[in-house]
Amino acid sequence: MTQSMLTLPVSGRDHTLGPANAPATLLEYGDYECPHCGAAYPVVEALRERLGDRLRFAYRHFPLSQIHPHAELDAEAAEAAGAQGKFWDMHHALFTHQDALDGAHLMRYAAAIGLDMGAFQRDLETQAYAGRVREDFMSGVRSGVNGTPTFFINGARYEGSHDFATMLEVLNTVVEAAVVEAAVVEAAVAEASRREAVR
């Protein structure tokens, strides 16, 4: 079976944590109302803490609206918060309060993280970020995503378990390979420069 690859690379359009030049990029397609995504949330946080600057994490929306009635609104709420520089604050609030994701609770979380409430409410009422959520969703569909959470590591779909130990082992392998590759490239550039200098 051929491994699925990410069709839309992680870029400046994405919500990311960690340096852009990190040797490993972990992308999640998630749904704020999905219990499996909720279980993966602390795992991702622990991976980020353990790997530090060696990991860049990106999150894209994949709301499964047919089974999770609040998922679309929650994704739009995260984007509305992101427009005010608070995407990750709302992301945290949603995943740590999965039992309370209706509109009234979204307003409470928005107030708690210090959003401009008028702008936030207008954005939700007008579905200002529905298009952005749709873009994420369709990029997932084109990359073979059909459930949540789905992870990609450096553009390749991760098919393993979502527990900390397994994911850490895979990410460490990716990081080590990237470090070795960077060293080989650096050595080749140094050798080319040395030969040029000898001429």
What's a quick, concise take on this entry?
The protein has helices spanning 35-51, 71-83, 87-95, 103-112, 117-125, 130-142, 164-198; strands at residues 15-17, 24-30, 55-61, 150-153, 156-158. It is an alpha+beta fold. The chain has a 5-stranded mixed β-sheet with strand order 1-3-2-4-5.
Structural commentary:
The structure is a single chain. By secondary structure, the chain is of the alpha+beta class. The protein has a single domain, classed as 3-Layer(aba) Sandwich (Glutaredoxin). It has seven helices and five strands; from the N terminus they run E-E-H-E-H-H-H-H-H-E-E-H. A five-stranded mixed sheet has the order 1-3-2-4-5. Strand 2 (24-30), helix 1 and strand 3 (55-61) form a beta-alpha-beta unit. Helix 1 (35-51) packs across helix 7, helix 2 packs antiparallel against helix 3 and helix 2 (71-83) crosses helix 5 (117-125). The radius of gyration is 19 Å and the shape is elongated. The model has no long low-confidence stretch (mean pLDDT 95).
Structure characteristics:
5-stranded mixed beta sheet; alpha+beta; Glutaredoxin; 199 residues; 53% helix; 5 strands
End-to-end span in angstroms? 50 Å
Residues in helices, as a percent range? 40-55%
| CATH topology-level name | Glutaredoxin
**In total, how many beta strands?**
5
